[in-house]
Amino acid sequence: MGKEYLGEFEELVLTMVGILQEEAYGNAIVTEIKERVGRDSNLSAVHVTLYRLEDKGYVKSGMGGATHARGGRRKRIFTITNAGMAMLRSMKESRMDLWKLIPQLKMVGY
Questions:
Q1: More confident call, 64 vs 34
Q2: Average of per-residue pLDDT values in the chain
């Protein structure tokens, strides 16, 4: 079996789950992407991506408590797994290895 890769949006969503921790649910992730990256994202796209990451074993989910603000509805909270953290580390290392190959950056000590 070959090495599995994440798409750019999958990586972004997975990173946000890691950042938000116990507050990682759909709308919070959409908001965080907008605030931290300046990128508009669609709630449906985030949900599809979260479920795909869950199928791959990179996140797990559970239902949070019901709130009055949500009309008694519960939030599905996502948590990054050890496999998800390992994937993010691997992707970071791969990117850093590539960055080191850029000649202009070698000259300034990166």
A1: 34
A2: 88
Phi-psi region of 46 (alpha: psi -120 to 50; beta: other; left: phi over 0): alpha
**CB-CB contact of 61 with 76 (8 Å):** yes
3-state helix, strand and coil shares in percent for the chain, rounded to the nearest 5: 60, 15, 25
Query: Domain 8-84, what architecture?
Result: Orthogonal Bundle (1.10)
H or E element at residue 43: helix 43-56
Average pLDDT, integer, range 9-34: 95
Report the chain's C-alpha Rg in angstroms. 16
Q: Is 83 exposed, middle or buried (0-12, 13-18, 19+ CB in 10 A)?
A: middle
Residue 30 CA to residue 26 CA, distance in Å, equals 6
| Spatial CA neighbour of 19 closest among 85, 96, 64 | 85
Alpha-carbon gap, residue 99 to 43, rounded angstroms: 32
- Whole-prediction pTM: 0.83
